[in-house]
Amino acid sequence: MPLRSNTFTVSLAGSHSIILPESPLQPFLENEHARVMAIASYQGKSVTFHTALKQYQGTYRATFGKRLQKEIGLDPEATFELQLMEDTSKYGVEVPEEFEAVMESDPEAFEIFESFTDGKKRSLIYFVKRFTVSQTRIDKTLLITDRLKLGVRDTRDLVKAKL
């Protein structure tokens, strides 16, 4: 059974992160789960997102960007509820089906993609995921697969409009 914390109260630390109390994190840290799923709730609205548990200046933090804050209508000064769950996804991020389909159709590019670090894989997935139009996601993934097969390995060059 995947790990799941009780719900606890948090607030923003700066414009895009949350300071996390250590007690709900202990089971995740003890089991070496640096990436988690989180559910943030505020005034009857909630949003689920992937995040990393990062230690910064002696405290644990999680990234909680403006887009997610806006989705639940979070007042930057308010406290809100958070619950953490073990992230059982392959890459630590939800993969767009267009990305999966293109990668499945190109075994050579997929093999190169799989050789990357987990962080680099997530960066490329996040790049494709940010587009809302399905055809654009397909086009961006095709751009990445073509460049992978050309030997391009730098993330910035893989996603540039033009080389």
Overall number of domains: 2
Q: Identify the overall geometry.
A: elongated
Unreliable stretches (pLDDT < 50, length at least 5) are none
Which structural class is indicated by helix and strand composition? alpha+beta
CATH superfamily of the largest domain: AF2212/PG0164-like
CATH topology of the largest domain: Elongation Factor Tu (Ef-tu), domain 3
Can you give me a brief rundown of this structure?
The chain is of the alpha+beta class and 163 residues long.
What does this structure look like?
- With 163 residues, the protein is of the alpha+beta class.
- The chain has two domains: 8-86, AF2212/PG0164-like (Elongation Factor Tu (Ef-tu), domain 3, Beta Barrel), CATH 2.40.30; 97-159, no CATH class.
- It has seven helices and seven strands, in the order E-E-H-E-E-E-E-H-E-H-H-H-H-H.
- A hairpin with a 2-residue loop joins strand 3 and strand 4 (45-52).
- Helix 3 (97-105) packs parallel to helix 6 and helix 4 (107-114) crosses helix 6.
- The radius of gyration is 18 Å and the shape is elongated.
- It starts with 7 loop residues before the first strand and ends with a helix.
